[in-house]
Amino acid sequence: MSTSTLLVLAGLSVLVLAGARWGFGRQQLPPVLQPLADSGIGFIALGVLIGPQGAALITGDTLRQMAPMLVIALGWIGFLFGAHLELRLLRRYPQGLYAAGFTAAMATAALVALVVWWVLETLQVGMEVNRIPAAVAMGLCAAGTAPAGVFRFTQRTLRQADRNAMQFISATDDLPPLVLLAISSMFLPLSGAFPSHGGAWGWLALSLGLGVALGLATHWLFPKADNIRENSLILLGIVSLGAGASALLHISPIVVTVLGGAVFANLSPRKESAYGLLAQREHSLYAVFLLVAGMELLFDWGTLALITPAYVLARGLGKVLGGWMGWRLFLSKTPVSPLIGTGLLFQGGMAVAMAVGFQQASHAYLADLVASVVLASVLVNDLLAPFLARWFLTRGRPS
Amino acid sequence: MSRMAGLFMVLGLVLLTRTLLGDATTTAADAALGLGFVLITAYLAGLYIRRFQLPSVTGYLLTGMLCGPFLLSRTHPVLAVLNQPVVDTLRLLDAVALGMIALNAGGRLRIATVQGHLHTILAVAVLQVAFVSLAVGTLVYFGGGYLGMGEIPPALIPVLALLFGVIATANSPATALAVIQEYKASGPVTDVVLAVTVVKDVVVITLFTLTLSLASLMLNPQEVADAAGPALLAWEVLGSILAGLLLGWLVALYMERMGHEVPLLVLGVSFLSVTALPALHLSGMLALMIAGATIENFSPHGEALLRAVERHSLPVFVVFFTIAGASLNLDALWTSLPFALSLMLTRLAGTYLGTASGASLSNAPRSVRNYSWSGFVAQAGVSLGFLTLVGQRLPEVAPVLTTGVLALIALNQVLGPVLFRFGLAWSGETKETP
Predict the structure, then answer these.
(1) What's the mean pLDDT when you consider all of chain A?
(2) Helix crossing, A349-360 with A175-187: angle to 10°?
(3) Are A241 and B20 inside 8 Å of each other by CB?
(4) Which of A371, B166, B205, B292 is the S-S candidate for B103 at Cβ 3.0 to 4.6 Å?
(5) Which domains, and CATH codes, for chain A?
(6) pLDDT at A399
């Protein structure tokens, strides 16, 4: 290992340590910046600053050595998301909330995809054949809501109906775009994407098979007794195995591990123990993931400056309109606010994971652009979402 | 039963992936798959092997040997889960593992306990080094030629005898600690083994540095003795101790003032110390042992540190020992089996005699006299580090030395944990008897 790599890792460790303390601790920051620290999204900015696009403290070689961490972190985020998809619990919630949440998510995806495609066409960005897949990917990455941001925000004064709706929708509305992104990547691939085994249908069969097998293996291997050391080892092993196998076969590590997590959650009586461990370890892993994701960005600053505002505005509009449509169609007889969409602007972990997963599957320029725009949007939304949500949701009550 | 089903599912997944994969691989994904495979299969092997009264470490090592580049990976590309590039990538975790092991070993050294056994610790460390280096050196000098060491020019034989003798004195703190931790051992044998391991680290580094300079002079008499040699040695030992004290103080301060993310701190500090301190010509392992002992003895955070290290040590141990098993050079072992066996038996005898006589001279308890030798049989990382240094400074003796030492390590690393497990059980320091 070269001295520069060592120095970089030294600095990185200190930054992660200090940042983890700052980001996940209780240090007081200016209110404008507090959301960045609360969500840990500030690590993306840190990654950009020290990465090849910033101060270039990180070289390409160092990034390559860190690549397995990114694969494993993608798997960890996917498995954690899947582990809370327990049908028995999900059935307890009213169908109207699902329908309203999915409507908001899909309307946002459609609007963002259209706007981004128009901008890409107008500016002639990237290869023509790749513009539609990239626009679709950006739209789908915009669709979900970050539960962490929503949960932090709804701890403040807010009506219970709005709070419950926002929390439920944010916990589930990532699922449709996640599945659709994985499917669209296969049926509508970027021209530079790595080929998958057996084409799109082969991909689908492989993803399903691997996901189910992973879930079964976790169920069988997860120790019966509460032993944190053994449980952590098995979870880390399963996540690494699933994410590594998927990445090797050029199928989505997130989809496979989400499936694995969901199968495990619906089979195992010890899912709470696993979920607790996954969530507990997530902080450190997530900090490193965001940092590395920030460093991996390949910015074309000019294009980014043109596309990001359009993306953020389209997403905001999509959330508000989609939220209203969902409310009008499914929740109008409930006390939920018609401006519920303004409470769904938070964007975070899963959007980043989806974008990075998309980027990892291809060498195309537009794949890098998708990841960069989504990360920039996550930063912007982390800063703006709390203010907008508070402003609208305290004024938009139905009479 | 369900674990067996899980294991078969994992094996099936890995084989399916590698069958579909063909020749195309990407290092990052391959390493992630390899890590998952190692964690699950080696861990389960460790569990199953305990049914035969053997320590889990042996299961991890055997898994590594079986699936590593020297056995299964050679037979068919589909079975090459632990191929050489994957092993090399995962070896990056060695630094973390070694650092955590050193911190853990130091954290178990309590001044009061060490003071109680001080004479024994010093006597055992010195006599063990003397007996082992003399016995092995003598064997190489007089018998190496007959035992298959190869055609060696006469001028090189004394140099080889010196180097073989010194390198044979090194042992594996990682293996000793893993066995102690697994069997939750405590008592005089455990205390003496841990303390002697730390003291020997200093003694062996010193001895090796002096021997290397002497060997260099013997091979190149016209070369003036390197004046910087003793100063560098003093810097390595004293500097490492100082670095360890400083590191221990800083970690204790962090735990005092902030106290969050201690596992992350432990991982970062371990990795950085083992990888960065050698660039300053310091021993990261020694510095971390001292840091662990400083935190344990001069701050109220020793328990918290040990808990943080132990809570995260299982995956690190599993990967470390499996990769150590995969790295054992079986080719070297096959080509020099008679020589390696002779070296191993001689080293074993030297270790037993040195430890027993040191313990007797210092009036140590009977259990220490009879069983503590078993904690010094395993051999790994430090010896490999010495080989690298010899390769850089004395390339003319490096090939013969490397083959012999790698074969010796392969035997000792398999035998060591088993002997120590039984040694601890017979001394009555574990909760169970074999």
Answers:
(1) 78
(2) 10
(3) no
(4) B292
(5) 68-393 (1.20.1530)
(6) 38
Whole-number Å distance between alpha carbons of A223 and A218: 9
Q: Count how many Cα atoms sit within 13 Å of the Cα of residue A362 in the half-sphere of its side chain.
A: 23
Interface A:B, Cβ pairs < 8 A: 162
Residue pair A57/A11 in contact (Cβ under 8 Å)? The answer is yes
pTM of full prediction above 0.80: no
B79: distance to nearest CA of chain A, Å?
14
Residue A192 backbone zone (phi > 0: left; psi -120 to 50: alpha; other: beta): alpha
Answer whether B261 touches A (CB < 8 Å).
yes
Which residues in chain B have Cβ-Cβ distances shorter than 8 Å to A247? 26, 28-29, 32
Cα–Cα distance measured from residue A182 to residue A161, given in angstroms and rounded to the nearest whole number: 33
Interface test with B, best of A16, A241, A291 (most B CBs within 10 A): A241
Tokens linked to B376: 């010094």
The answer to whether A95 and A146 are in contact (CB under 8 A) is no
- What local confidence, expressed as pLDDT, does residue A39 receive? 57
What ipTM describes this predicted complex?
A: 0.79
Residue where the block lists tokens 């905001």: A316
Q: Which of residues 42-61 of B touch A (CB under 8 A)?
A: 43-44
Tell whether B307 is within 8 A of chain A (Cβ).
no
Please state, in angstroms and rounded to a whole number, the distance separating the CA atoms of residues B129 and B355.
9
Which residue is it, tokens 């003798």? B165
| A113 burial type by CB count under 10 A (0-12 exposed, 13-18 middle, 19+ buried) | buried
From chain B, the residues in CB contact with A219 under 8 A are 2, 6
Residues of chain B with Cβ-Cβ distance to A229 below 8 Å are 310-314
For residue A307, give the nearest of A144, A179, A184, A131 by alpha carbon: A131
- Give the residue extent of every domain in chain B: 2-90, 94-426
Q: Which two three-digit tokens encode residue A344?
A: 């769904």
Contact B271 A13 (CB under 8 A): yes
Give the DSSP letter string of B149-210. -----TTHHHHHHHHHHHHHT---HHHHHHHHHHTT--SHHHHHHHHHHHHHHHHHHHHHHH
Beta bridge partners of A193: A362
pLDDT at A237: 92
What CATH number does the domain located at B94-426 have?
A: 1.20.1530.20
Integer Cα distance of A111 and A319 in angstroms: 9
Distance in angstroms (rounded) separating the CA atoms of residues A364 and A252? 17
